[in-house]
Design brief:
Largest sheet: 5 strands, parallel
CATH class of the largest domain: Alpha Beta
Helix content: 40-55%
Number of domains: 3
Structural class: alpha/beta
Strand order of the largest sheet: 6-5-4-10-11
CATH superfamily of the largest domain: HUPs
Shape: globular
Low-confidence stretches: 473-480
Number of helices: 21
Amino acid sequence: MNALEQAKQQIIDQLQPLMPEGVTVAPIDLEQPPQRELGDLAFPCFSLAKSLQKAPPAIAAELAEKFAATELVAEAAPAGPYINFKFDRSKFSQAVLEDVAAGRTQQLNSSKAQQLIIEYGQPNTHKEVHVGHLRNFFLGLSVVRVLRAAGQSVIPVSYIGDVGAHVAKCLWAYKKFHAGERPEAGSEGKFLGAIYTEASQKIEENEDLKEEVAAVQRALESGDPEWTALWQETRQWSLDEMNAIFSELGCDFERIYTESEVEGPGKELVQKMLADGLAKESQGALVMDLEDEDLGIFLLLKSDGSSLYATKELALAELKFEEYPQADTSIHVVDTRQSLYFQQFFATLKRLGFDKRLVHLAYDFVTLKEGAMSSRKGNVITYAEFRDQLLAMAIEETGKRHADWSEEKTRQTAWQISEAAMKFAMLKQDNDRPITFDPQEALAFEGFTGPYIQYAHARMCSILTKASVAAELASAPTQASVAAELASAPSGHFTEQEFALLRTVAKAPEVIAEAASKFRPSALAQYAFELAQEASGFYRDVPVISAEQQSDRERRLAIVQSAKQILERSLYLLGITAPTEM
């Protein structure tokens, strides 16, 4: 157990024998008081009033009086209906330093390890990858990393939409109006997206063209060689660009599925469902009747025999669990508009005999200050345009701060800052809240931003580097040497400010556990900001390298190192790099 878990257990060990029959005290019952001066943990006594026939303040007073100091918990005091507990500052602080050195605050061991398939990163070919896709990418990446940190086995997969009505529409317009044209390298998505928008606009102007597009889709689904060759060529343009973006953003998938590989099996599965009496025909289409579950009618196959999302995703579900039979959960990171669809989809899978846990991890939209985007209307901002805008702003600011840096170093650091600005701004909000992205705000070095947290990390790196130089070392300590130093760091007397920073460091495991259990990286983003604030106040107000006593200097360097490690780890779990200089 880490220090915080030990402290909670020591409190529980004393409270539990005093509880009425049938009442169990659990770690979750111990809260953090709203103000630090009240204590480090609090136990509310409201739920005991009925069984003990006493007012909560009286119960708190009696229980607090019976509490005896433990190794890590120095005292207990009643505060109205609560018992507030204060840790032994020095012993708890030393225990946290030892936890960091041993890695107990960074990687959790789960007693209920699961294997989860997380499907995210589902852009469509023949369209641009744009700002609206980024929340999906960033949320999926962070959830994968957080779950792994919580001791779970995670299989990240992507599902690319490379067939369907949008592809037929794009290919129809390409062949009719742009035959032989080729996109510039790196602009494949924008090129195809513009053609898709053009097609949408022409069809809106003349609905008779819909049948031409429908004919293209039927030709594609029947394997027409000419249309298939064009589809394969243009599809590869999109896939090459997508893979480059995934790599740039750190999205590493174990398997990339495509709609085209499950379209045929999906049609066969739907026909089998019809034969088995699970599906039925309705006006020429095949449907699943979910009225008895208040989920309406789920369309499985169009009346003309063309496939739908459901057609393909039913086969995809079978394929995923065939390839990963040990997985017990499938998580689908898809925006909130698809909530009803996933309720219907999961209900259908249950009727097919699926006994796996199925989760729709929904998130709300991202818009820019200019408003909502739509590929059909042609008012999207591509990822490349968005990235380059942020990067240019970050290069300018980094250049002002470090005129002596090389162009390569400036650009590399500016990219890390830009990436943090994008990812943090889209992860700091809870999944169900919409986001309006403001580039200037996201890039700020002050406030609730990724660059602010990166800067706190860089400042701590600077302190440690200066300390190494002062000690006439050639470079900053290695991780191995630092770990050894932390384990033997002098306990001495930890000041209130030292304790406050380490108390925040100690929260990391329970924050990771919460973020993992609720698929909620925003909890980790908020924690990283809290830790960065605490660290900034510490190195602003507490002498570290200039401390008069050698023991104080060594202890404070160990504290800075521990906070740096946890902040770096927190950023990593959010998909963000922690620069050593900014």
